[in-house]
Design brief:
The protein is of the alpha+beta class and about 270 residues long. About 45% of the residues lie in helices and about 20% in strands.
């Protein structure tokens, strides 16, 4: 039978360890709960801006996913559900977001190549895994295969890519139950906005400790920073006109990371031989 519950909720899963995901999550400037999810990291929002008329769950979480992924070398997947509908959006750097959704009866609606993009960016098997993903885009003969079942099948398939969500983080659960489950997950921690100074320090520490330190020096860092600033400023203005908190976060993250890239390139120049 189709699902009768109509909660709205969602979460983000980053294909990165918590140490790498934490600084990027700080730049969203919202309170989140972070927990390991197998080889991934899950982020559960403590706020529910979609209940205040500031965009749908899909719009808000897609914007947040883009904000987290824009300066990273790993993808971020938003998983959402609202009024029986479910879906996902995959953000990966500056590349176009791939999104797909199902209605409350499990009917597919989305871009034809979204599953192929998902499989390619996550390194899934281009034959066997892609065949199962594309099966989720076809109408189901079984009336029990609703939108929630479709999203559960997707999550199960992503287990082959190392995703293992903590208990209780499942499609169809309302936001308050998601938060409760996230707080009780092993290794969970709160990510709270504490000001730009701490966010910048966390970002620089992550760069120094991570594998990308040498890459972000020199001309490449300056080009990246300029590109992020050029993309972030108009996105912030557009998001302000639309009153979209998700895309405002993406614009703010772009501007911040662009400024950080330029500052890092200047202050961490290699000494002349």
């Amino acid at each position: 039978m189709p699902i009768s519950r109509t909660p709205a909720g969602g979460l983000l899963v980053c294909r990165a360890e918590p140490l790498a995901a934490r600084p990027a999550a700080h730049l969203l400037r919202v309170h989140l709960l972070l927990a390991p999810a197998g080889e991934w990291t899950v982020l559960v929002p403590e706020a529910t801006p979609w209940l205040d008329g500031e965009g749908t769950v899909a719009e808000v979480l897609s914007g947040w996913a883009s904000a987290v992924a824009v300066g990273a070398n790993w993808p971020v997947l938003s998983l959402w559900w609202e009024g029986g509908r479910t879906g996902f959006a995959l953000a990966s750097g500056f590349r176009r977001t791939a999104a797909y959704e199902w209605d409350r009866l499990g009917g597919p609606a989305g871009e034809p190549d979204a599953m192929r993009t998902l499989a390619a960016r996550l390194g899934l098997d281009p034959v066997l895994d892609l065949e199962e993903l594309e099966r989720l885009t076809r109408p189901a003969a079984d009336p029990a295969v609703d939108g929630e079942a479709r999203l559960l099948a997707l999550i199960a398939l992503l287990g082959r890519a190392g995703l293992a969500l903590p208990a209780g983080l499942a499609p169809g659960e309302p936001a308050d139950r998601l938060r409760e489950a996230a707080r009780g997950a092993p290794g969970a921690e709160a990510v709270q906005w504490s000001g730009w100074r701490d966010a910048v320090r966390a970002e620089l520490d992550a760069v120094e400790e991570g594998p990308l330190g040498p890459w972000v020096r020199g001309p490449k860092a300056r080009l990246l920073g300029a590109a992020q600033l050029a993309a972030g400023a108009p996105l912030l203005a557009w998001a302000a006109r639309r009153r979209s908190p998700g895309w405002a976060a993406a614009g703010a993250a772009l501007v911040t990371q662009g400024a950080l890239s330029l500052a890092y390139a200047r202050t961490r120049r290699r000494p002349a031989p």
